[in-house]
Each structure stands twice: as C-alpha cells, then as structure tokens.
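Name: Alkylphosphonate utilization operon protein PhnA
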Amino acid sequence: MSQLPNCPQCDSSYTYEDQNMYVCPECGHEWSQNGADNASDEPSIKDSNGNILQDGDTITVIKDLKIKGSSQVVKVGTKVKNIRLVDGDHDIDCKIPGIGAMKLKSEFVKKV
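Structure predicted for Alkylphosphonate utilization operon protein PhnA:
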C-alpha cells in the first residue's frame, strides 16, 4: 500500500487520491499531487457552478436563505453587487439590498 501525504490544511491522515488530486475527507481540502497548486497563497473560492469568485464580483443567490434569528428570507434570484471574500465557513461578505450587511456561503450563490 502506498503512503499518501497528510492534509496540509488540517494534518489529517485520511487523505485519498481522486484522479490527479489528493482529497481530505475531514476538511474538504484538495491539492494537486505534483504540488503546483501550492504556488498561490490565496485559496480560491468557487461558486456553486465551480467559477472562481473574486472581490468586487456580482453574484446571484440560487436558493431561498432564511436569516437566522429573523423572519426575513433572502429570495432566489437576489443579485448582490461588489462582494468581498473572507476566511471562514461563510466566505462572502456583502450588503444585500433591503436587508443589509451579511455573510453568505459560496455554495449558495452563482457568479453573474
């Protein structure tokens, strides 16, 4: 059995191969087997379709999102301009028209 490297993000030993990538099932981190992805210090944040997001992009919400602690809902199709990418679980910081400042997960948006 070949020895696979530990995850560079969480140091998990449960990594596995997926085509030409290594994948960590614990934190979800993926990296290239040849190490080419490590050249960039900034992680890429992707929308639900796999498009890479950048600061200042315009996105559209693809699912009704209930706002925790409120009766308000961010409706499908809401367009959000001038996003800012941040670290963490909710990786998009933005201002939603009619609601205000909010953090969103990239898996619930698509790039316009």
